[in-house]
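re: ur question from yesterday

yeah so i grabbed the chain u mentioned. its 332 aa long if i counted rite. heres the sequnce exactly as i have it in my notes:
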Amino acid sequence: MTEETLETQNVDAPSADSTRPPVVVVTGPTASGKSALAVDLAERFGGEIVNADSVQVFRFMNIGTAKPSARERERVPHHLYDIANPDEPYSAGRYAKGARDAAKAIHARDRIVFLTGGTGLYIRAFLDGLIETGNVIPGLRKQLEEEQARAAEEGDPGRLHRRLAELDAEAAERIHTNDVRRTVRALEIHQQSGTRASSIREAHGFRDRPFRVLHLAIDPGREILKKRIETRADAMIEAGLLREVRDLRERGYSADLRPMQAIGYRHIQPVVDGSDTLANAVESMKVDTRRFARRQRTWIRPLPEVHWHDPADPKAVVERVEGFLALKTVSR
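ran it thru and got these structure tokens back, copy pasting raw so excuse formatting
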């Protein structure tokens, strides 16, 4: 499970242009059943899965990320899983290039891309391209994050957001005061480029859209999802999540690494260190997973042309995909 936050803006829905190769996005809140449904759809329609989860790209992190099983990978080809070590820098830019390269190869085989996962930043990078922000300033993001942490400790958590308002009022208005990551990112863009983040986004326009897209959002409803989250958390413990975290630590991967701070992994770290009980960790894991699912819904809801489906009604999903693929482009 991943907690990346996407800097997003509403954009016009792409036209149903049959000259562009098709991509079916299968997303939704965590534990909604999107991965299993995506495998069924890919098998039915001659497709291949491209990962859009920012933690499933890492090796040795299987149980806590709910990575596709060996059986699922045998049914249809899967791409961009297990391609980096947990201590290896992995950016949205690297992901977008790898995912688009995989999609190009899939389309060349006259097969369908099923982009599957819940990381909004990765989905957006794949579909719309990335904003160029100028030269990277090493350590800048960490410096801003540390400044934010100090400000919060001093009782002034809105300090960086006020600075952003002075530098880029339009960006500050779009970003909630409590959204630390997007605030930091907007300040980072400004310092790297010398230009307001809002101006760069406007110039970019998110026009790099090479695909014709069907965007599916899979959601069984709040109460059912809550039960699924609780059941899956318990199943992860039964499957050996504690052992998986211990193995990662024994391999030398620090608890401070970003992937090791993902949901599940960060909750189990204190158990490994002997500073918390497994029962407390699992309960906290369930609470944070429910919060994360709410944030995922919040990201998906305003997107144009998103079709919400209950995984309990796969027939409706199949009919939706059939209609979309009736315009399928044959590779040249």
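noticed a couple things. The longest helix spans residues 278-300. also Residues 2-16 have pLDDT under 50 and may be disordered.
anyway ttyl
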